[in-house]
Amino acid sequence: MEQPAWLNILDYPFASQWIKIQGDAIHFIDEGKGTPVLFLHGSPLWSYAYRNVIKELLGECRCIALDQLGFGLSEKPQDGDYSLEAQLDRIKRLIDESNLRKFILVADGNASTLALKLMSDRPEHIKNLLLLHPKEHTPSPLWKRMLNLQHGWEVRKGIKASLHPKNKLSFDEYLPYRRPFWHREDRVALGKRIEPFATFSFPVELGKRICIIWGQGSKKKEREYWQEISSAGQQEVFPAVKSLPMVELPSAIAMQVRIFLLALAEDKKA
Questions:
Q1: Nearest to 31 by CA among 9, 14, 18
Q2: Is 103 helix (H, G, I), strand (E, B) or coil?
Q3: CA-closest candidate to residue 74, choices 59, 52, 94
């Protein structure tokens, strides 16, 4: 498989790779050397949303970002299993195939549930977890009504509504977010009702290794809910950010990853 012609290699200057998992091709990038940092995107995004964070971190760590099944440059089977359990299994498979150990995990939006579950399942592998404006993993009725719109317009509207007025993108800048969902059959994963995990167990002591970054679009009730289920040791609300911190303020997200990297380096010295 190859990168599509519409993807600007100057904007996304990474070598695309694909791995077959359960018969489906999953797209990912694996750039740099050093401590691994794994990026998980929420819906309706793909690894492209982390490109500027990764650009800043290259040379400092190893950056891995995948597109979940049904998103980005991964395959989009009409009869695919898009449940949280299935997506989690694919992520674990990539982790194992990439030999990721003692890594930092970054997740945004509704991928945060996957990240917390992954950390609770493999606490020995994930050293730190950074959640970016976490959300529950259930699509709103609005998404279902918009699935019939052509050329990924619902993706553009969803992203536009998630950005602070100071961070609005141009028409052309929205294009790479829309193109993976250009045709209706490409949007099969967007309209799925995703049931939450039946059980969720998270040791309180792991919360010390978790940081949550919020935008101004967050509500106190949301922050309290995620604090309760994650026991996060640190929460921050960024100004001039609504709900997509890695898109709106990538340098700040890269800086938080650096803080984790420095802490891990100090632990090794101790």
A1: 14
A2: strand
A3: 94
Q: Give dist(CA 205, CA 203) in Å, integer.
A: 5
| Burial of 218 per CB tally in 10 Å (0-12, 13-18, 19+) | buried
In order, the DSSP letters of 72-88 are TTS---TT---SHHHHH
How much is the pLDDT for 51?
98
Structure tokens at 220: 């106190």
What confidence score (pLDDT) does residue 189 get?
A: 86
How many CB atoms neighbour CB 1 within 10 A? Answer: 11
Query: In whole angstroms, what is the distance from residue 42 CA to residue 267 CA?
Result: 31
Produce one character per residue of 193-211: b if its CB has 16 or more CB atoms within 10 Å, e if not: ebeebeeeebeeebbebbb
Count of CB atoms situated within 10 Å of the CB of 7: 16
The pLDDT assigned to 193 comes to 61
How high is the pLDDT of residue 147? 54
- pLDDT value at residue 84: 87
Q: Which residues pair with 36 in a beta bridge?
A: 62
What's the average pLDDT block by block, 10 residues per block, for the chain (270 residues)? 92 97 96 97 95 97 97 95 92 96 95 91 93 75 52 75 91 92 87 62 79 91 88 90 96 96 84
Give the per-residue pLDDT at 228.
Answer: 85
Question: Which DSSP string do the residues of 199-267 spell out, in sequence order?
Answer: -----GGGGGGEEEEE-TT--HHHHHHHHHHH--SEEEE-TT--S-HHHH-HHHHHHHHHHHHHHHHHH
Q: Which two tokens stand for residue 268?
A: 């090794």
DSSP notation for 171-211:
HHHHHHHHGGG-SGGGGTTTT--PPPPS-----GGGGGGEE
Residue 249 to residue 205: CA distance in whole angstroms:
29
